[in-house]
Amino acid sequence: MKIELCPNCGSDSYIKSGIVNNRQRYKCKKCNYFFSVNKIGKKIDDYYVNKSLQLYLEGLTYREIERILGISHVSIMNWVKKYNIKRPYNSTYHPTYKILNADELGNYFQNAENVKGAGVIVTELGDKFMLIKWERFKD
Ligand SMILES: [Zn+2]
Q1: Domain match, 70 and 109 both
Q2: For the Terminase ATPase subunit N-terminal domain, which residue ranges apply (predicted)?
Q3: 56 and 72 assigned to the same domain
Q4: 138 and 95, same domain (yes or no)
Q5: Which helix or strand (DSSP H or E) is residue 75 part of?
Q6: Is the distance from CB of 37 to CB of 21 less than 8 angstroms?
Q7: Which end of the chain has fewer CB atoms within 10 angstroms, the N or the C?
């Protein structure tokens, strides 16, 4: 089984560090975090990498993504670097966002005022949904 990133900081620089309970243990060279292979759900890992980068591209800051996904901003910074993600800098398009469940999401879109004059995207976030909204001509 191949590990790609430290689950704590997202670094791909780690060394083998003994066997614990029949599982290979690794030590991250960057943050000194210890982890073993089964701690990393590859699927969940990919999911959060994708979500993080998606939110980053939507204009959210590292700290905001950290707050929403519960992933260290250091991990996100490492992924942005690793996948060479670039976004055009434009502070006037900073989006606002809401976390809604399926019912709330339905209600939100029933009210035309909520989406008037704004761009909105919806992305899945665990068992809820995240709605990201730009109000381009706000000021
Ligand atoms: Zn690490």
Answers
A1: no
A2: 54-86
A3: yes
A4: yes
A5: helix 73-82
A6: no
A7: C
pLDDT digits (tens, 9 = 90+) for 54-93: 889 888 889 988 888 878 899 899 999 999 998 876 666 6
Identify the domain containing residue 50 by its residue range: 43-87
State which amino acid sits at residue 86.
K
- Residue 95 Cα, ligand 1 centroid: separation in angstroms? 30
Is the whole-model pTM more than 0.85? no
Do residues 76 and 112 make contact, with C-beta atoms less than 8 angstroms apart?
no
CA 14 to centroid of ligand 1, rounded, Å: 8
Tokens representing residue 84 in the block: 């060479």
pLDDT digits (tens, 9 = 90+) for 96-108: 888 899 999 999 9
Neighbours of 46 (CB within 10 A): 11
Q: How many domains in the chain?
A: 3
Distance (Å, rounded) from C-alpha 101 to C-alpha 63? 23
Ligand 1 centre and the CA of 10: distance in Å?
A: 6
Whole-number Å distance, alpha carbon 57 to ligand 1 midpoint, is 24
